[in-house]
Amino acid sequence: MLKDIANNTRVYLVTGYTDLRRGIDGLAAIVQGQLLLDPFSKVLFLFCGRRCDRIKGLLWEGDGFLLLYKRLDNGRFQWPRSETEAVMLTSQQIRWLLEGLKIEQPKAIREGKPGAMY
Fold first, then answer.
1. What does DSSP assign to residue 2?
2. CA dihedral 42, 104, 101, 44 (to 10 degrees)
3. For residue 75, is it left (φ>0), alpha (ψ between -120 and 50) or beta?
4. Is residue 96 helix, strand or coil?
5. What is the DSSP string of 8-77?
6. Smaller CB count within 10 Å for the chain: N or C?
7. C-alpha of 57 from chain center
8. For residue range 68-116, what is the model confidence (pLDDT) as tens digits?
9. CB contact at 8 A, 49 and 19
């Protein structure tokens, strides 16, 4: 289900550690207060705690918030631990994240710059 939602929606990964005991109101307060983004936009915000084996997602559906929770049975998410910021993910980065890989792959081919010719 998370893969389906993430593929059809813009996704922001919230870096750093988040206290996953927070509910909808607490996560929306982080989005609005710390990140200076609108929690009522059609964007999926992903948060991860210290253990890296579970994530929470917050999504505004127009008439209310949807709170998603995923806990891995085996393995960990490779979550960026820099200071708290929001990073918009590409569909490839979402796939890497949900497969347990880092969102920045050092040997991945990067998109070219527009207008760049040989």
1. H
2. -10
3. left
4. helix
5. TSEEEEE-S---TT--HHHHHHIIIIIS---TTSSEEEEEE-TTSSEEEEEEE-SSSEEEEEEE-SS---
6. C
7. 7
8. 999 988 888 888 888 778 889 988 888 888 888 888 877 767 677 776 6
9. yes
Mean of the pLDDT values across residues 19-39? 95
Contact present, 80 and 15 (Cβ < 8 Å): yes
Residue 12 contacts residue 94 (beta carbons within 8 Å): no
CA torsion sign for 65, 47, 75, 8 is positive
Closest among 13, 27, 31, 36 to 89, alpha carbons compared: 13
CA angle 80, 25, 11 (to 5 degrees): 40
Contact 58, 27 (CB under 8 A): yes
Amino acid type, 63: D
